[in-house]
Amino acid sequence: MTTKSICYTVGLLASALGLSASAQTAPPANPSAAAKTTPASAGLVNDYLRQSNPAFTNFDIGGSVRGRYEVKEGYAIQGVAGSLDFRAHNADVNNDYFLEKIRLRAGYTGQWWGALVEGESSLAQSDERFAYANNPAVAGTTKKKGDGPEADNIELHQAFVTLGNLKQFPLQLKVGRQEMSYGEERLIGAFAWNNIGRTFDAAKMRFQNDWLGADLFVSRPVIPENGVFDVSNDYDYFSGLYATINRIPKNTLDVYFLARNSSAQASSAEPSPQFPQPSARDIYTAGFRLKSKPLELGNWDYALESAYQFGNFTDKRPGLDTPTGRLEQSAYMAVAQGGYTFADIWSKPRLGLEYAFSSGDSNPYDNKHETFDNLFPTNHKFYGYMDFVSLQNIHDIRASLTLKPTPKMTVALEGHGFWLANTHDSFYNVAGVARGGTAPTPGNGYGVNPDYGSFVGTELDLIVGYAVTKFAQAEVGYGHFFAGDYIRESFSNPTFGSQDANFVYLQLTVNF
What we know:
20 strands, 3 helices, mainly beta
C-alpha cells in the first residue's frame, strides 16, 4: 500500500469522524451492499441547501467518495502469465491494492420532467492486474496493463432526462445513460461493489398504478475503457419487460422477459475493454420472482426465483481456433431462500438459508449450449463476498446469520458450499468467463475434466458495517475459501499445486 493511499484513507476517516455527532442512522442490512443502500440523508450538500432555502428542494447536488483497500491471497492476477485462482506454486497469486471512487452529480426534478448528470472518477493504486488481459485472445483487441480493471479516471457515469409524473399520470419516459437494477440484481444490477459500476445507454418507459409497475426498455451496455470516453457497445443490445405485481396477498410477484442480442463484432467493439464483452448470441430469458412482503408472514421471510433461457449462442470447441457456429441455447436457473428474524431478542438475529442453481453444459460436443447466461448481475451479494463464483454451472448452498448489535452496526456471517452442476462444463469466474475454457487439462489447471469431483469448495465470510455518521459508513470484511476436490484435482500436478484463498478489505464511504 503506497504512502498516498495511507494518507488518503486517514483523511477519509478523519473527515467521517468529524461528522459523527448525533448520528443515529443504521448501516444497511447487508453490510457489503453499503454503496447501494439508500442513505437516511440525501447527502451533506443537499441537506444543507434544502434546510437553508426551500428553493433547493427540487435540486439534487452532491456526490460521494469511497475508498477501499483489498488484500487477496490465492487469486488469479488478471494478465499475469500462469496466475490462476487457488494455484499454489510457481506463479504470483497475491495482490493488494487501493481503490478510490469519486462521484459528483447535479440534478433537477420538476412537476413533469427531470434531469441528472453524474460524473465519476475511478482510481486504483498498486493493482497488479492488467486492465485488459485479452485471454482468451479476441481478434481486434489489445492487451493493456494500465492501472488495472477497476480504474477509469474520468467518465460520464449517468446523464438522463425523465418525462412524466407517475403521481398524476401512469406513464413516464427515461432516456439517456443510466443505472438499471431489478429484483435482487441477480440478472440486472448496478454492480455497485465494483470500483466503476455498470450503466447502460437506454430508453425506458415505465407504467405504474396501484397494483402494477412495469418497465419496457431497450439499451446498450456501456464499455469502461480507461483513458478514453466510455461508449456503449453498438453490437450488444439488451432489452426487455420487467413487471412487479403488488396485489398478491402477502407477496409481490416479479415477472420478466429479457433479450440479449449480440453480433459477432460485440467482442471487439473497443480495443481494450475493462469488462469482458460478449461473443455472438441471441438469448431470451423468461422468469419470475415471488417474494414475501415485510412482516406479512410474521418473523419469517422467503423468496423464490427461476428463469429459463432459449435462443442461440456462439462458442468455441476444444482444439478449434474458430467458433463452431450458433448453438441452441437451453438453460435455466432457480433460487430458493428463506429466513427467520428473532425480533424480540438482543441484536435481532436473522438466520437465513438459500439454495442457488444454474445449469451447465452436459455435452461440449453437441449442438446445444446449456450454460446459463448470468446477463448483467451484481454477483458480489450472493455467491460469496470473495467473488470467485457466478450463477453459471453451479450449485450453491448458503447459510447466513445477520446481527444488529447496535442501531449503527450490522454483522453478517455467511457460509457457502459450491459444487459444479455438471463436470462436463467449466468452472466460471465472477465475470462469467470459463476458467481454462473447454479443453481438457488434466492436473495442469482448469478445463473440462468430467472424471474430476464436482465439489469446488466452501467459503466463510465475516462482514461488519458501521454507520460512522449519517453521511459516512465504514466496512471491514474477511473471507476464507477452502479448496475442494475439483480444485485440488485441477492442480494435481506438483508443479502447480493448490491452496486455499484469503480476502480482507477495509472500506469507507462518505456521501456529501
